[in-house]
Amino acid sequence: xxxxxxxSAMHPLEYLTIPLFCVVFSLLNPVMGYFFGGLRESxxxxxxxxxxxxxxxxxxxxxxxxxxxxxxxxPFEDRIETRFLPLVACGYLMHDLLDIAFYADxxxxxxxxxxxxxxxxxxxxxxxxxxxxxxxxxxxLTVETNSLGVHIRKFxxxxxxxxxHIASIVNSAVILxxxxxxxxxxxxxxxxxxxxRSDHIALPSYLYYEYFFLFLVVFGIGIRFFYVIVxxxxxxxxxxxxxxxxxxxxxxxxxVTNGSVTVANNNSNGVLHYKAQ
Length: 277
Known about the structure:
66% helix, three-stranded antiparallel beta sheet, single chain
């Protein structure tokens, strides 16, 4: 433990950031449950508070990390600015784990179990920030922009937006693009950069194994998000549009009196033709 603090690149006060923001998000959690009250009737009170707090975290951390990556000359460089946001994110993850452990609705759905695995995997790599990889953490946290899109998708569903609504289609497209960019391309580039700088940064070997495990978890979640968006959103819209009804004639009280109706459905074995007599 003494060696850990000896080689740490962090100021001792920076270690207080994680518990501090764990408390901050815990205090914000009940307050966030009162926002947009008209929507919270569709979910349980705990789920609504959790969704709102998670959305706030994704917005703040995701946007600030993207700005940092864009404006910094070297986003992978370790400095107090690049260490701050990963520590804030760790504080939120610690809050969310405690919130799930003590207050979540039971039984836990499978999606919530994936959240627990993700949080534990991220927190296990937190010591790397102290060893000089704060820039790596900030770069990887751009993935929160993808998480924000997933939260917006949930809000649109609660607001009863149809999947073929322009807002839903645009959001699904944004989720796919940010998923490919921030859950696949950026983590690989960040890991490559970390390995290239490992010669002059004393990072314990076990942290590389934990990073590898974290990337597997991130990839797994990314694949799941990609599959859900493609199969449940975009392909659903395509299937609905493949059902075409063409009429030719005069329709009176729902009955074709002069003409024909053709229904073509790609999901059926053929085409149904009806000729009015």
